[in-house]
Design goal:
The complex is a heterodimer. By secondary structure, chain A is α/β, with parallel strands linked by helices. Chain A is built from 7 helices and 10 strands. Chain A has one domain (about 1-255): Rossmann fold. Chain A has a 6-stranded mixed beta sheet with strand order 6-7-8-3-9-10, sandwiched between helices. In chain A, strand 7 (about 150), helix 5 and strand 8 (about 180-185) form a beta-alpha-beta unit. Chain B is mainly α. Classes of the chains: A alpha/beta, B mainly alpha. Bound molecules: adenosine-5'-triphosphate (ATP) and magnesium ion.
Chain lengths: ~260, ~280
């Protein structure tokens, strides 16, 4: 259980990136966070990750207040952020280096198999495509078996085809290990296809505009009418979040996000 | 038509496309390049040799290559050359070691702490702009005319590039990479060992090579201030006794030694840098 308890984040330059954000996420849930640029989505993930402290309020995982990176929380950034001086296997093993060698190798082999990169263990990061590198990053964050996986627009730099195949990889992993997934995305289809619940945020100050359950069963069909309806629902909520800004603000159509 | 022909085989050999054409193409080009590079010096040397042999020019101040190699050979045979090389090499290595250690430590401290940087960096930048030779009288006063003052001068020369390299490399390590370490809850020590050190290694090796290059420059200055052996001594001695062939022999030896030590340093660091994704011309 992940509890975000009325969190404020004010950056040193005075930007109110988060304003009284409150959200409870149950173990194993997939939550998509959507919203316009600058509404605090990355900030929220960084607070959950323990990379930045909250100005007020707190984040707790199973009752433990998160003050610094928690052993049960993993993060996948927008870029793969592989360490160029380690091979693929070395990168994947990075978070489990305290384990004895045999056990570590077994874990590395297993997670690489899951992301479909078993044959790439000895490659250097420079020898990977963008999608492969992002899969290695996913494997690296999975190796320590996190209970919560935070993903900050992990697939946004990839083409639609690679993205769709990574969605399948991610869902497969989720089925096997049942981590909580908090996924920031700009892609409405991605949110509709993956999430149990969608959190819509709005900017200045960044706060939650609406939260709703999609109520779709898995496996889902990308082209089904239900999914289309879910996409429209998310778009509508995004539109609302931008329209209800104080008078005088320019209106940005949600399609522009 | 010809464009089609050019495209066709490349498409057919797609998976192996990159390694196969590049290797045979690179080999002859490398050979050609080497030949092109030594063409000019060899031609000049030969021309001079012929000019002197046929009496067109006299080789008193500028001895022909044959005399130069004869001088080198004689120096080598008597064992004198090795004594001088040994003396110079020992000074360079000692000064390089001292300068590198000091530069690494101070650079690391300045890179790691904003406060330390603000205290140390302005002074060092000021000292850096002092011409090396200006230190000579001071070091002689402080340390005497023997090895200590020479090694100190070389160490000063090596210190600055190493300091700047380490300091610059640490302060340009990407915050994003450091965050990966933080996500996996590395301790401060692990962060240094597993992220910072590997991240700065390429820049560090460059700094070391630069430092070593300056070490070779400074050893000459050091040996000019009165040495009884060393390649710099050969230079001074050659000037005083009017032996241009000895001067040239010493210069040639400097060139060779500088190249060899730099090559050794590069070769020793290469295994640690195979991961690099920088622009690197083949060989
Ligand atoms: N380190 C920082 N210092 C000061 N202000 C910041 C910092 N990081 C972000 N901000 C500001 O905080 C607000 C929220 O930023 P955040 O990165 O969380 O947005 P986001 O929702 O992730 O946007 P995007 O979708 O464009 O990634 C923005 O107005 C941004 O300018
Ligand atoms: Mg962001």
């Amino acid at each position: 259980m992940l509890n975000i308890q009325s969190v404020d984040k004010i950056y040193p330059n005075g930007v109110r990136a988060l304003d009284r954000v409150r959200l409870d996420i149950t173990q194993g849930e997939i939550v998509a966070v959507v919203g316009g640029s600058g509404c605090g989505k990355s900030t929220l993930l960084r607070l959950i990750a323990g990379l930045d402290p909250a100005t007020r309020g707190s984040v707790a995982l199973d009752g433990d207040t998160i003050l610094s990176p928690h052993p049960c929380v993993g993060m996948i950034f927008q870029e793969p952020r592989l360490l160029p001086w380690l091979t693929v296997a070395g990168n994947v093993a990075f978070g489990v280096s305290h384990l004895p060698r045999g056990k570590r190798d077994a874990i590395v082999g297993e997670v690489l198999l899951r992301v479909g990169l078993s044959d790439y263990a000895d490659r250097w990061p420079r020898e990977l495509s963008g999608g492969q590198a992002q899969r290695v990053a996913i494997a690296r964050s999975l190796a320590p078996r996190p209970k919560v996986l935070l993903l900050d627009e992990p697939f946004s730099a990839l083409d639609a085809f690679t993205r769709a195949s990574l969605h399948e990889h991610l869902l497969e992993l989720w089925r096997a290990l049942q981590p909580t997934l908090v996924l920031v995305t700009h892609d409405v289809e991605e949110a509709a296809y993956l999430a149990d619940r969608v959190v819509v945020m709005r900017p200045q100050p960044g706060r939650i505009s609406s939260v709703f359950e999609l109520g779709l069963k898995r496996p889902r069909d990308r082209y089904s009418a239900e999914l289309e309806a879910a996409k429209r629902r998310i778009l509508h909520a995004l539109d609302q979040s931008l329209r209800t800004r104080s008078a005088g603000d320019e209106l940005v159509p949600a399609a522009a996000i | 038509m010809s464009a089609m022909d050019a495209v066709q085989p490349r498409d057919a050999a797609q998976p192996a496309a990159s390694p196969i054409p590049s290797t045979p193409a690179a080999k002859p080009r490398l050979g050609t390049k080497f030949v092109l590079g030594i063409l000019l010096p060899v031609a000049l040397a030969l021309g001079w040799e012929i000019a002197v042999a046929t009496g067109f020019a006299q080789g008193r101040l500028m001895p022909p290559p044959s005399r130069l190699f004869k001088t080198l050979y004689d120096l080598a045979i008597t064992g004198e050359l090795w004594r001088h090389i040994g003396a110079t090499l020992a000074r360079v290595l000692a000064g390089f070691a001292l300068g590198t250690i000091a530069g690494t430590i101070v650079g690391a401290i300045a890179g790691a702490s904003r406060l330390a940087k603000d205290i140390v960096d302005p002074t060092l930048q000021g000292l850096r702009s002092v011409p090396s030779i200006a230190w000579v009288p001071l070091f002689i006063l402080w340390l005497g005319i023997f090895e200590e003052s020479k090694i100190a001068l070389i160490a000063v020369g090596c210190f600055f590039p190493v300091y700047l390299g380490v300091f610059g490399a640490i302060s340009s390590v990407d915050r994003k990479t450091v965050e990966v370490g933080r996500m996996f809850r590395l301790s401060q020590f692990q962060l240094v060992r597993r992220i910072l050190l590997p991240a700065i290694l390429p820049a560090y090796v460059l700094a070391l090579r630069q430092g070593l290059g300056l070490g070779w420059m400074f050893v000459v200055a050091a040996e000019f201030m009165g040495a009884s052996e060393g390649l710099g001594y050969l230079l001074v001695d050659g000037q005083q006794l009017g032996k241009p062939d000895q001067i040239l022999a010493a210069i040639l030896t400097f060139a060779i030694l500088g190249k060899i030590t730099d090559g050794l340093l590069a070769a020793a660091s290469a295994p640690f840098l195979t991961w690099q994704d920088a622009f690197a011309p083949k060989n």
